[in-house]
Structures are given as C-alpha cells and as structure tokens.
Design goal:
Elements: E1 2-8, E2 11-18, E3 39-40, E4 52-55, E5 66-73, E6 85-90, E7 100-108, E8 111-115, E9 118-126, E10 129-137, E11 146-149, E12 152-161, E13 165-166, E14 172-181, E15 187-194, E16 199-203, E17 205-213, E18 218-226, E19 231-238, E20 240-248, E21 260-265, E22 270-275, E23 280-284, E24 286-294, E25 297-305, E26 311-316, H1 322-325, E27 330-331
C-alpha cells in the first residue's frame, strides 16, 4: 500500500508501508513480515544499561527460586514474538568496575528464568530494537508474567538509478543514523553498511538514512519513519549513472592500456583518480571533465552524466579539438 512520496533535494523517496503479514491485509502475527527476509539481528546498546559484565554468577543459588515468565510484543496489542529475541537479566547493583553484572541470558521467543527473590533489570533485544524493565521477584507468592512492549518495526531498504534502473546490490549500501543531530553537528550511527533487501529491526521512530551508490560522489540522504508492528519498504532514487572511461585512437576503437585518469567537476575539483584501460565508476548527475594521461601526453573531454543512463565515455587521441569534446557517449542497457 503506497501511502506517500517524500521529495528531498536531488532525491525521490518512495515509501511503502505494508501490513505485518502477507499481502495488504492486517496479519494476526505482526512478526510474520520479518520472517521472509534475511535480517540483521546483532545486539545493540541496552536502553539505560550502557555496560555490563559477562555472566558472573548463578542466580539460582542462595535462596528459594521463583519462576519468572517473560514475553515481548512488537506493539501493546500485538501477539508475543516467538523468535529472534535475546533476553538478558542483570543485577541492579554495579560491580567494582561500575558495570551491571549479567546474571542470565536466553534466546528465542518467550522465556522463563528461575531467580531468587530480589530486584533485577530485564532487557529484551529484537535486532536493533529493545526494551528494559526493572522487576522485583517477591519472597512470598508468585510473580505475574512480565510483558515487555518493544514498540518496534522494521525497515527494508533499496534504491534505483534514475527513474527505475536497477542498481546491482554489491554496488549499493546504506547506513542508518539517529534523526537527532548532536552538538557537534553529527548524528549517532545505528548501523553501517546495510545491504539492500535486508530487514533491519528498529524501535519505532524517525531515522536518517544515507545511501551510497559506488564509492565516488553518488550519495543520497533521506529521513524514514519506522512504525511499530509494520515493515517499511523504502526505495531511494539516486541521481547518478555508471560510466566506463576509454582512451581510444578513433571512435569505437580499442581502449589504450596504461592510462591514468582524473575526473574533475565543472568547478575543477578532482572527484576520482584511477589507472587502467577502461575503469568503471559511478558519478552523480552533473557536468565533468575526463583527463587521460598516457605516455607523457594529456587528453581531455567534457561530458555530462544523466541519471540512470549508463555510458561509455571515450576520449580521443587526436587532441583537444571540438570533435573530441563533443563526441557522443554510447548508451548501454
């Protein structure tokens, strides 16, 4: 279900919000949307628990144990999450190093710990999303099941070049940052080098996404909203294209080896340097100059990059005449 298009400078961001199950109908289990994609499930910093020790003691020792049952929900009215969770139980009393001792762990879905009476911090992580609660295990009577609400959803990122040109996944990456800007003007990095079509589990909120196409200057930024219990599919439109550089003796001729290349912007700034017969690179839409050096001679050509149009840029050996600077690039599919 397409709900909105958000326009950014040099960016078109099409955001698709899908219900947390198959198709567009509301699913009974909102975790289903996360099962059909590869996911990143690494740990994150625990909310309000900035550091902790490794497992140091057996919480079943030292008194009568109580059965503490735990479950986590994506939303307050959702169903229990039955896979992909990491549970941790901490002592609330810092150790000599100032860290909270980690007492017990469990992975999977709903779980239970046998704990002696006392106070504990319980944390549950679901990918990069998490929730923490302080609980008290009573000396007398049972403890009600503890339900933690993650308030979490997921985001699945992809990108195209131009209007709809597919970008090879190995040439595309994303980094997800906090939406808040710190005093130094930077944003907190949540996760780097995310590959396309990978579901990232996050607490609900707004995140700042940076998409890199290639390794030169094709970079797009966008803010994306993650909603609890939903998978947000975002496709970012890069205004860029892939180019192959060739120094040739005649149009359409063989590329000449041992050529050093420099790519300059219209203002004269160098954005890329390489050596080879036909180096390939990705450039943002705009005007550039290709400078080729071969056997102590320099050849150059002005050219323009059009979003989504992958081209060969040929520089001719016959000097910097008008024919050389206006030669046509060969469009590729």
């Amino acid at each position: 279900m397409r709900v909105r298009h958000r326009i950014f400078p040099s960016t078109v961001l099409a955001i698709m919000l899908v219900s947390a199950g198959a198709g567009h109908a509301l699913a009974e289990d909102p975790t289903d949307a996360f099962k059909s994609f590869p996911s990143i499930t690494g740990t994150r910093k625990m909310p309000k628990l900035t550091s902790f020790n490794p497992l140091i003691s057996d919480p079943t020792q030292g008194g009568e144990v109580k059965d503490v049952k735990l479950e986590a929900l994506l939303t307050a009215k959702g169903e229990p999450v039955e896979s992909g969770l990491t549970w941790r139980v901490f002592s609330p009393i810092p150790g000599s190093d100032g860290k909270l001792p980690l007492l017990a762990t469990s992975e999977g879905g709903s779980t239970a710990f046998n704990l002696v009476p006392g106070e504990y911090f319980v944390n549950v992580a679901f990918g990069r999303a998490g929730a923490t609660r302080k609980i008290r295990v009573p000396e007398q009577g049972p403890l009600d099941k503890q339900v933690l609400v993650l308030d979490a959803g997921g985001v699945n990122l992809n990108a195209v070049s131009g209007s709809d040109v597919r970008i090879p996944p190995n040439e595309l990456s994303f980094s997800i940052f906090s939406s808040d800007v710190k005093e130094d003007g930077e944003r907190a990095l949540i996760i780097a080098d995310v590959k396309p079509n990978t579901v990232i589990r996050l607490n609900a909120g707004t995140y700042h996404v940076v998409s890199d196409y290639g390794s030169v200057n094709a970079v797009i930024r966008a803010d994306i909203q993650v909603e609890a219990g939903k998978l947000t599919e975002a496709t970012i439109q890069h205004r860029a294209a892939k180019l192959t550089l060739k120094l040739v003796s005649e149009a359409g001729g063989e590329a000449i080896a041992d050529t050093a290349w420099s790519i300059l912007t219209s203002s004269g700034d160098v954005v890329s340097e390489s050596v080879g017969a036909f180096p390939t690179l990705v450039l943002a839409e705009g005007s550039y100059t290709a400078v080729a050096r071969n056997k102590d001679k320099i050849y150059q050509r002005d050219f323009a990059v059009k979003a989504g149009v992958n081209t060969d840029v040929e520089v001719l050996l016959n000097g910097n005449d008008a024919a050389n600077t206006t030669a046509n690039a060969e469009a590729q599919d």
